[in-house]
Amino acid sequence: MPYAAIALFLVAGLCLSSLDTTAKYLVRDQSLLIVVWARYAGQMLVVTPFAWKKVGGGFWRTRRLGLQLLRSTALLLATAFFFAALRFLPLAEASAISFLSPVIIVLMSGPVLGERPSAARWIAAIAGFLGILIIVRPGSVVFQPAALMMVATALCNATYQLLTRKLLDENVHTTLFYSALVGTVALSLLWLVLPSSGASSLPDLRTAALFLMLGVFAGTGHWLIIAAYGRAPASLLTPFTYLQMIWATLFGYLVFGHLPDRWSAIGMSVIVISGLLLALREQRRFAATNSRRAAP
């Protein structure tokens, strides 16, 4: 069991949940444009030296520029929708709705990747969707227009993940660099075109530190994910993704004083269990396939 890879992946999840918590705290009083920009600019500062060290001076070269730009744009849109929704939605419930992505991936995997989803994937996708409906039910705190932004987040995130699978022949460090580059450049240009949407004055020391943490959490989290995948297969690490729901619930309570109600907790549990069972099944299927290939 590659415990080092699992440890790195768990810390990465903690970093990304910390990123979401910091973003939710900042978007209450700060410009959404500035918050999203700080997330990508900080990631770029972290990943660029790492990519340069691992790949060399040509780390930015890619054979599939159009696909890299499209993938990174999907990630940028997912981030913007998610941070915007966090201004109105509780952290735990918002994070749970973002796990609608696997449902969308199942629906899109045929036309985009030419794959035929298995029955287990369909069952897990339907169960996850039912969990979303339980959370976003009439009368709940999540039953509001902002929930539509979380659906848009899931759609963009699913597109991002599907396009990532189409870039498996590219160097992972190059792909990570473009993820940060597109967001940083696009938002910097938007900031110049729409200066009124930026900060009207310099932030105080505490706010500036939070902006810095935003970039550090983003860059470190993605760096740790790469390090973890370099030590263990995705099939082993994917089940641990759902532990982020624990961090989201804990941070939502400690920082914002919010705990999911009973029905929201049930919906979150349905999403986590369905995704976890599918991930474990995929892990066993991957191990069985490798075992057959290794057999004489």
Describe, in plain words, how this protein is organized in 3D.
By secondary structure, the chain is mainly alpha-helical. It has one domain (about 5-295). It contains 12 helices and no strands. The protein has helices at about 5-25, 30-55, 65-85, 90-100, 100-115, 120-135, 145-165, 170-195, 205-230, 235, 245-255, 260-295. Helix 2 (about 30-55) packs antiparallel against helix 8, helix 3 packs antiparallel against helix 7 (about 145-165) and helix 3 crosses helix 8. The mean pLDDT is about 85.
Give me the strand/helix succession: HHHHHHHHHHHH
| Weakly predicted, low-confidence segments | none
Separation of termini? Answer: 24 Å
Helical stretch count? 12
- Number of domains as seen in the coordinates: 1
How would you describe the shape? globular
Cα-based radius of gyration, to the nearest Å: 19 Å
Quick check: average pLDDT?
Answer: 83
Question: Would you count the extended β strands for me?
Answer: 0
- How would you sum up the major sheet? none
